[in-house]
Amino acid sequence: MFINWAQKEINLKIVYYGPGLSGKTTNLEYIYSQISPTCRGELITLKTREERTLYFDFLQVEFGKIKGMRPIFNLYTIPGQIYYTESRRIILRSVDGIVFVADSQQDRLEDNLDSLLDLEQNLNREGHSLDHFPWILQLNKQDLATAGSIADLKEKLNFLKVPTVPAVASRGDGVLQTLKLTLQATIARVHETV
Amino acid sequence: MFNKDKLPTNQIMLSTEMFNEISAVLKDLEVSIRAELAIFCETSGIPITSAGNQRAIDLSSLSTLAAANFAATAEMARMLGEKDGFRFLFLEGERYNIYLCNVGYEYLLTIAISKSIALGMLRIYANRAVKQLSEILDKAKTQEKASEAIFDNEFADLLGNAFDSSFKKE
Q: Is the CATH number 3.40.50.300 carried by domain A2-193?
């Protein structure tokens, strides 16, 4: 979090984490398409020819003045591919809240767990840990026939009992709910720390 | 809810005075080397302040792209086993050059400058600015946390209402 008293701005960083092709960019694209243009900046996406996120995606959203301050939420996605380790670490610096976008398909369970472990390790480097950090688990791609049941996915992925949102990001289901819960959890955590 | 004792804080509170000091460093840099634009941002691109000719440039977008570019060099450094990463990145254009360098662990300085300014001179002035900025930021880190009662329950409620009214109905 970065507070600029001169400009009455509070910058908070929310990172969408998760394995490759789980739908992180799709979340941001939906938010961009639905939010009032006066509340958002440009959606920056750097993709490879195969439509994979190269460095990160970025979207800035804000909701006007609240108690005399202007909270600005900087939303980032990470590149999910295993080999972009350093990019993920850089993006996680000074992170305030996390959305973990899991791919609900049964054959992606290992990828989800690997990514969660990677997240935990990278958070540790920043002095954080998943069990003491505001994060939301989004179970994306619930519309696919190959998706596991919500109960089963919760049991395998949500061992820390964080808020969970089933989603179909490609049609927007659960996307805004996820964001709202994440912002609330992030603000609550900041409240706890000051 | 969350264990307060175990929460490291990565909050930076920049007072009006410190913000003005940072702005003054950038302004001084801009004037000294006739920079077209100097942006000081956080490593993932959140702009803090800038100096120079901003015209219709979207500073957030520009600094985010600069940060992405710098992140790519960090990946290359990792692959080559370069432990502390690369210190700066220089992009050569037809009219302008761009110089990117890190300020400590968490910030970046981006300078767009006319091609007529030699890289050596640019580096000297950039290094001087980096040193000054680092000193100001060190002071910010030791400042008393001053977010006091901003983030109370009322703040969360107001934010929730503002959130709902900012989106089309789902």
A: yes
pLDDT digits (tens, 9 = 90+) for B122-158: 999 999 999 999 999 888 776 655 555 677 888 888 9
Weakest-pLDDT range from A27-41, A45-59, B87-101: A45-59
Cβ contacts of B58 on chain A, cutoff 8 Å? 41-42
CB–CB of B65 and A44 under 8 A?
Answer: yes
- A 115-154 residues inside an 8 A Cβ radius of B: 126-129, 132-134
Please, what's the b/e burial string for A130-147 (b: 16 or more CB within 10 A of its CB; e: otherwise)?
Answer: bebbbbbbbbbbbeeeeb
Question: What ipTM does the predicted assembly reach?
Answer: 0.86
Q: Stretch B1-23: mean pLDDT, rounded?
A: 67
Residue B109 CB neighbours (<10 A) = 22
Across the interface, whether the CB atoms of A66 and B64 are under 8 A apart is answered no
Q: Which CATH architecture has domain B14-145?
A: 2-Layer Sandwich (3.30)
* DSSP designation for A150: H
**pLDDT tens digits, A59-88:** 999 999 999 999 999 999 998 777 778 778
Interface probe for B, chosen from A16, A94, A181 (most Cβ of B below 10 Å), is A94
Tell me the residue type at A47.
Answer: K
Q: Domain coordinates of chain B in residue numbers?
A: 14-145
The shortest CB-CB distance from B60 to any of A4, A35, A60 is to A60
Strand residues in chain B grouped as ranges (E): 12-14, 35-42, 47-52, 88-92, 96-103, 107-114
- From B7, B61, B74, residue closest to A90, measured CB to CB: B74
Nearest chain A alpha carbon to B9? A193
